[in-house]
Here is the input.
Amino acid sequence: MQTRGGRFSVPGRGFAIQIGGIASLTRRTIVAAVRPPYTYGPELVSQILLALRLCWVPMIVAALAFTYGPVGVQVGGFLNFFGALDRLGGIFALLVLREFAPLVAAIVMAGVAGTAMCADLGARKIREELDALSVLGIDPIKSLVVPRFLALMIVTTLFDVYALIFGTFGGALVSIRNAAPLGPFFATYFNNATIAEFSASLLKTALFGGLIAVVCCYKGLNASGGAEGVGRAVNQAIVIAFMGIGIIDYVFTQTLLATHPELTIPR
Here is the structure.
């Protein structure tokens, strides 16, 4: 497509440039995280506490709502119709461990902590604080991006465990709602909740956290246009983060099932 000035613009070129910038920032962040000196300790602790303070209530509410509502009520009613409500625990083990707990943790982290980090870095960019750090010889990647990257990986993985606990509690509530004993629920649950599934859930959630941090930091570091530009950067960061979460989730799950075919067989 030809523009007014006679130049040609390729559809999606801007998006491809952003993906390249995010990949470059990921590489620089990982290198800065492992290369001494490790001066980002206080900022890392601050970001962990910030994410915990902002996200723990939405995470609990979302975990219960997603598992008890769209999954528990519908699946519980279907199984109860066929007299197989004792299999609800096995279904919950697969759904919550493999999909719902990581996705709930990632969605809450992106929507709450990720947006806060993007807005904070965007405001600093608008106020030219990042340029001042560079003039002083302070690397913004090591001092600002690395602690946020590590903090979101740690907190998102921790929230995966909490989402798993409250998601399982949502399944138990479905059994109680259908006047079914909890013994069969937990028996089939622990038959299907393997170490491989739990380890994969933690690893996938850590990848989600790293992706959210890099995307939100990239958009914040490249914000422009005043307060309106910061808001635009936050919106774009959420869209890109959700797209990345979906891609990672699909690729990771397919790879897991291909390398561990025994996980495809319910027990």
Remarks:
- The chain is about 80% helix and 0% strand.
- Residues 40-261 form one domain.
- The chain has one domain: 40-261.
